[in-house]
Amino acid sequence: MSPAMIRRVLGIFALLSFGGCVPLSDPVPDPPRSHQNLDTAALPDLVNDAFESNLPIIVIDTLGEAIVDEPKIPGLMRVVNAPSGPNRLSAVADAEALDIGIEHRGSSSLAFSKKQFSIEVRDEAGDERDVRLLGLSKDADWVLYGPFSDKTLMRNHIAYWLAREMNFAAPRTRFVEVFLNEENNLREADQYWGIYVLTEKNNRGKERVDIARLMPDELSGEAITGGYIVNLDRPGDGVDCIYHPVAKQKKPCFRLMYPKINKVAPEQRQWFVDYFKSFEQTLKAKGNFRRFIDVDSFVNGFLATELIKNPDGFRLSTYFTKDRNKPIALGPLWDCNLGMGNIDHPTKKRPDGWAFINVEQSKAKTLPFWWRALLEDKRFIKSVVARWRRLRREGVVSGQKITAKIDNTRKLLASSHRRNFKRWPILGVKIRFNPRPLPTTWQKEVDNLKRWFVGRVQWMDENIHNFNQR
User: pTM to 2 decimals?
Assistant: First the structure.
């Protein structure tokens, strides 16, 4: 490999810490289609040792191709995570080069300058390759979530942690700093993309969503009963809806996430739809709906969604799983960045009031009927109230515990947040969804989040007995 080509592929590592970049004397050639066995012999001459972080560093190069919404394009990724001491960009030569496919992800966030990424790790043949990144679960599929409208940078991280504490399924995360090279001009200093949250995707697997593997030829008996993963979301162009749950007018959408829509057998798809219809019919007839759902997961899911007051809860990015010979379970939690007060709405942003009531009043046409039907069931409501009081009594949920977690996260991001907001100078700037007034410093954003949670826990304590009232 020529020295010029090495400079092109590794030019991202020539960044200074926002002061510019090391001059590259050779012109940038067109990238080859293969980047296997990358020669890093010239790396020491190209890397500036000044950049270091207490967070792991992820470096991605797409070999000159621009990342798009779909499909995934090929790229190369390296993860720098020192066993002790700071992580330095110069250590990238020692990190394994991972072949990846990468694309933009998200819905409304696609309009943001700081993009979100979906990543698939691949082997040399281009097939999925399971890897363990930064101590998280071993899998091929990952999300790099880049907080943008959430200027605390930590809402998803806190929400997922809280859910797991409450025994409700949620992905694990690690904060990282990301460098991205998708341009041929390596002299630009904007290859630093800031703080991201490496997040486990809600995939089937022993260390993620632990449900049975459903093979294409398992078409009857116990085998066909699981596993399945579905996501309640809005229908849209190109979205494969396997079922439209019963709602007042507009049809919400059940998207099949596992098995993949192009791999599921027609008999399996129909079996799941029939099972869910049976749940709806039994619930509507006030029959024994409990044989169809894992009530504990629904109770914990209701409380987790209410605690963070997620305005998208109960209707968007809401996951369900169906394991073999087991009822439908709610979860894992997903996509909570508009919760915890980060929404420009007079009631939804406040720490008081029920999230479900807000959704029911503002999105009634697209809300599946079964949420309200569950809240009309006295046994279910009794379980919700008892569970909340137990979580509080045992100290699983408390304002003090949550604010301590936020403070620990603030310390973790104490240095890196400055770089992030130098790259994205949006503090005090109105970004879509941000409520007013707009804090002008990161510390004020974090303090607001702490105050919000203290108020939220107190309000829920005082009002949990009225949980189901409109």
Answer: 0.89
